[in-house]
Amino acid sequence: MAYTDYLNRDKLMLTVATTGGVHGKDANPNLPEQPEEIAEQVRECEKLGAAIVHVHGRSETGENNSARLQEVNDAIRERCDDIIIQNTTGGQAVLEERIKGIRTDPLPEMASLDMGPFNRDRHIITEHNRHNIDLLAEEMQSKGIKPELEVFNNGHLNEVYRLIETGLLDEPYYINIIFGGGTFSIPSPKNVLNLVQNLPDNSKFNLLATGPHQLPLTTMGMILGGHVRVGMEDNLYFRRGEPVKSNAQLVERAANIASNLDRELATPDEAREILGMK
Amino acid sequence: MTCPYLAYLREGDNKSFDHERPFCGATESFVSPMQADLCNDRFDFHHTTHCSIYQEYERNTELETPIDRMVSPIDE
Ligand code: SF4
């Protein structure tokens, strides 16, 4: 995956992360939390070209609740044509909660797989140890769920190489490189280049950057032949001082940038092909 | 045991919602979903160990009592 892929005009997979587990409506009232409002926004994003949706479940109080992934999945299937559902298995809950992301019925086509822990406030995101990573990878492989490997910082790329050696991943490896504050990779163009250069062979990468870094670094990801994720999970502002009105607003901007860069968006079916899911 | 400053409210901090949400009485603001796990002592979290707001608030509240002001480490 590199600049040559951009020159080859490889199609771009656009992922929308509508909700996440970090922010609530108190931070931005337009953040969708309940199944119906999530599905409504996902439908708008699908119409604008999003091929994949990254999904979290929330309780009525807005708190994280993986048991509600089923309801969110059902609502998205009901409203959308063909968008690929990618459930979370991340967050700071215990494994028994997180594993619900790969036990919905029907199964999701994709799921996130965190490559290790990171810090929040005065604690770390718990239970992201190798035992649990391998266990999730094994269940995903046996069920034919494509993992998106979450590389929160440079060191997590080592874990990708380790996991490849275990044989628990199938090619192409789909790696989400993440930039932001805290213990994420430091958001800078140089660090993007560095991570992209160190990716394993036979991999595809997606770029995620939080807050004000979403716009410049996802644009850079597009130029480097990568795929991108946008959405309110990662960014609550459209521009400085202007809160995002909906996920569609961010998806539309990313789709326009891709179009201006002459990269066509992949349909969900084309995304399945790119990721070897067909 | 949940944090004594935690409440579930529909309104507060000049905001209102359709449903009750976790609200911190120490900061008088709604708390984020991840923070709410700490407030509720879910999983392996405990508000006394993991919440910096709780720790800070307790320290300051303690300092406000006359006896604490007299022996405050800050004054030493
Ligand atoms: S944020 Fe901290 S102080 Fe406030 S309710 Fe939660 S645990 Fe308690």
UniProtKB/TrEMBL annotation, chain A:
Transmembrane segments: none annotated. It comes from the Archaea. It holds the Pfam family BKACE. GO terms for molecular function: 3-keto-5-aminohexanoate cleavage activity; metal ion binding. Keywords: Metal-binding, Transferase, Zinc. The keyword Zinc applies. The keyword Zinc applies. Its cofactor is Zn(2+). This is 3-keto-5-aminohexanoate cleavage protein. It comes from Natronocalculus amylovorans.
